[in-house]
Amino acid sequence: MPFHVALITPSRYDRDGYVQQWKHPTMVTQAQAAVKALLKDCDSRQLLGPDVTITCEDHYEIFGPVPVEGIIERIKEAGNGAVFLTGVLSAFYPRAMDLAQMFRDAGIRVVIGGVHINGVMALFKDKPYGLQDAIDMGVTLFVGQAEGHMDELMRDLYGGIHKDVYDYLNDLPDLKSAPMPDYPVEMIKRSSSGMLPIETSRGCPFKCTFCCIPNTQGVKMQMRDPQDIADYVRDYCQKGVKNFFLSDDNIARNKEWAQVFDALAESKRVHNLNYQMIIEADTVAYKIPGFIEKARAAGVTDVFLGLESIDPDTIKAAGKKHNRAANVRDMFDAWYQAGCVTLSGFIIGFPGDDADKIRRNIDTLVEEYAGEIFTLSVLTPLPGSVDHKRLADAGTYMDPDLNNYDLGHVVFHHQDLPQADFDRMKPSILRRLYSVKRVWSIMLQGLRNPAGAVTNYSWSLLLMLGYRVEGGGVYEMGLGRYRNRLLRRPTMPIEPAILFYPKYALKDARFLLLGGATILLLKAIRALARRKVAKEKANAVTPQLQPAE
């Protein structure tokens, strides 16, 4: 007898109200893979009895339409089952609710979990921001991390017991005993990055006011077994996956970072593995003795750094006291000398940021760090962050549409940066930060790296396409956009076919033309940069050996 679970990671609605979907999205998300592994573990232990098989199906909505009718049919054929909406962020919550309504209308049980649920439950008692609406719909909210807590939920679902909320927020799991996430390899290979994300740890001891992690995952670090991580990378590498992302919010604060890197380095050497790996670290990680050296030995090629701001007062006010603006140059140089590509997150819209201050900061980035790569986002007080709670307690206006909480909108009443001012200045910021001149500098810096030349072509292309062509940022990117006329936000009208198809065909054609032109331009820049660096090396003075006296 089967118990069938449909796992769905919802997408979000784009600016036109259509579900955002791509033939090749940038990357799969990891929450669903973790839940799938837990379900397979429940099945292997015969949790629901020797005659009950737990089956599940994967749907990452950003890859394409979710077969709602098919899922309903399969669960009803099984005679028992549920839909799990996993990894739901605030910007994805409106779409998650619309999907939940479809399944609830058919009498299918629905469970929702993710950062949005955890963040709201951590800071508010009355279940605002759509949580009470979900409960009223008959949806179950899963709060906290699923590892170590799946058994109770599955037994209740199987037995027909309904609870509004399962709250494990403060019951942090033992990740060392938890199964590793189960990703569908075909999805990894379909993504445009081909990248598999892995958490070696969860939680963060720092309490940055704009971040949800301390409230949703805890300030006490939970760590996976280093050897399990190394074996996991080896297994997927042997399946053809060549890009990995250690997605810890800050791997430098994993107390076992050295053991993780050592296990990866040993596995890489013994099994002759060839892969690239990205990590996230804070701006002072480079000062930890051995950190960079061990990271390189483990196969780390790229590092995402949470720079956030270069203004000391802003950094202090944001609770990111471990950042040191004065150390930025040394930080970049340390990673550069090791042969790593660095990407630094930069946020605009902190308290005190007005149009003039933002322009000055952008000028500093462009002029003083000409060869460095930056991603740009807007300060977003996500539910679950201290910033959000402070604004809510102060009665500050915040956008009621969660779909806009995407790191690209000003979603609250900012005393010094009105939305109109931001909209006016945004094009000029993007032109400066992602200009052809800067891409030229970025490529030259990469090719001149003494530890191993890199073109930085892929990152330059992603940034130019995301910010300059698409206008939404790297977080909204993919290749081969799907746009289903009938999958539009319920609050917006269905467009007539005679208008819909020409309108979006022109929009897609524009993207293809501009994108194609951008690719040709960047290839030309890459070729010229390679030629220039080769000439520099050829003309370099080679020290001559002096004859012995």
Task: Please provide a written account of the structure.
The longest helix has about 45 residues, at about 495-540. The chain is built from 19 helices and 16 strands. It starts with a strand and ends in a 10-residue tail after the last helix. The strands form four sheets. Strands 3-1-4-5-6-7 form a six-stranded parallel sheet, with helices on both faces. The protein has a six-stranded parallel sheet with strand order 8-11-12-13-14-15, sandwiched between helices. Helices cover about 40% and strands about 15% of the residues. Residues about 540-549 have low confidence and may be disordered. The chain is α/β, with parallel strands linked by helices and about 550 residues long. Helix 10 packs parallel to helix 11 (about 290-295) and helix 14 (about 355-370) packs parallel to helix 16 (about 420-435).
Oligomer: single chain
How do the strands line up in the largest sheet?
A: 3-1-4-5-6-7
How far from one another are the termini? 90 Å
Question: How many H/I helices?
Answer: 19
The percentage helix is 40-55%
Extended strand count: 16
- Which descriptor suits the 3D outline? globular
Content-based structural category: alpha/beta
What fraction strand? 15-25%
- The overall pLDDT average reads 91
Uncertain stretches:
542-549
Rg, alpha carbons: 24 Å
Q: Major sheet: size, sense and barrel closure?
A: 6 strands, parallel
